[in-house]
Amino acid sequence: MGEMSEVGRLILLGAPLGNPADASARLREVLISADVVAAEDTRRLTRLARDLDLTVGGRIVSYFEGNEERRTPELVEAILGGYVVALVTDGGMPSVSDPGYRLVRATLDVGAPVTVAPGPSAVTTALAVSGLPCDRFCFEGFLPRTPGGRRSRLRALAAEERTLVFFEAPHRIGATLTDLADTFGADRPAALCRELTKTYEEVLRRPLGELARWATEGDPRGEITLVVAGAPVTAAERPDDDTLRAAVAEREAAGRSRRDAITDVATEYALRRRDVYTIVHS
């Protein structure tokens, strides 16, 4: 290890998704200077360091799903001892469907600082290139592996109006897309992003039904990020005039001014405020 700093800390490193040229200057700097580098796959870290023409300066340890429970206390102890520990996953940001959350939480729980050298994210990269609305979205990560669990989760998400982002393994993508088409509708727009930033990058922008056929008839490979349009926004059914008057009166009884009550009701039912005003005063 290098010389200890006065206060140890954890640094989360954003790693390239596939193209080493996307590595930031800070990523390079931290890989060289950190006392300990915890890597999801030490072989991938070695390859990345070689591609970046640098030597990792500190001790390299593995940190993945199978050993993070055991390794976390060791890394926290190093941080408390004054060492700088860097965490890097195979690609993208730690903690986002990758190891990291457990170590971040444990580091914060002992009062030690956590910082980040941000970098690429498959979530936002796929979202940006999908051609689907990006102003509001939710990330669902990997769906349950069992068919029943997957379908149950999708039924709970069917009415979600925000754009949805999923990760999926290539050997399950056909079944997942079939369930998505059955639950969300075969015509729901989507974008399947495969091998982002790599040599064989591919983005298929098609309805879910067409993507399901493509996946089940073919042999998809590589890392897949799936972006699905949110459910269509349906206008609230317009109530009759008596119901609108009652809704305004109810809000007035609760303490709202008549002006504000009319505005609230007009907003709720996507009506013009002037029309609600006329109904209330007729």
From TrEMBL:
<keyword id="KW-0698">rRNA processing</keyword>
<keyword id="KW-0489">Methyltransferase</keyword>
<dbReference type="GO" id="GO:0005737">
    <property type="term" value="C:cytoplasm"/>
</dbReference>
<comment type="similarity">
    <text>Belongs to the methyltransferase superfamily. RsmI family.</text>
</comment>
<dbReference type="InterPro" id="IPR008189">
    <property type="entry name" value="rRNA_ssu_MeTfrase_I"/>
</dbReference>
<keyword id="KW-0963">Cytoplasm</keyword>
<keyword id="KW-0949">S-adenosyl-L-methionine</keyword>
<dbReference type="InterPro" id="IPR000878">
    <property type="entry name" value="4pyrrol_Mease"/>
</dbReference>
<dbReference type="InterPro" id="IPR014776">
    <property type="entry name" value="4pyrrole_Mease_sub2"/>
</dbReference>
<dbReference type="Pfam" id="PF00590">
    <property type="entry name" value="TP_methylase"/>
</dbReference>
<comment type="function">
    <text>Catalyzes the 2'-O-methylation of the ribose of cytidine 1402 (C1402) in 16S rRNA.</text>
</comment>
<keyword id="KW-0808">Transferase</keyword>
<dbReference type="InterPro" id="IPR014777">
    <property type="entry name" value="4pyrrole_Mease_sub1"/>
</dbReference>
<dbReference type="GO" id="GO:0070677">
    <property type="term" value="F:rRNA (cytosine-2'-O-)-methyltransferase activity"/>
</dbReference>
<dbReference type="InterPro" id="IPR035996">
    <property type="entry name" value="4pyrrol_Methylase_sf"/>
</dbReference>
<protein>
    <recommendedName>
        <fullName>Ribosomal RNA small subunit methyltransferase I</fullName>
        <ecNumber>2.1.1.198</ecNumber>
    </recommendedName>
</protein>
<feature type="domain" description="Tetrapyrrole methylase">
    <location>
        <begin position="9"/>
        <end position="212"/>
    </location>
</feature>
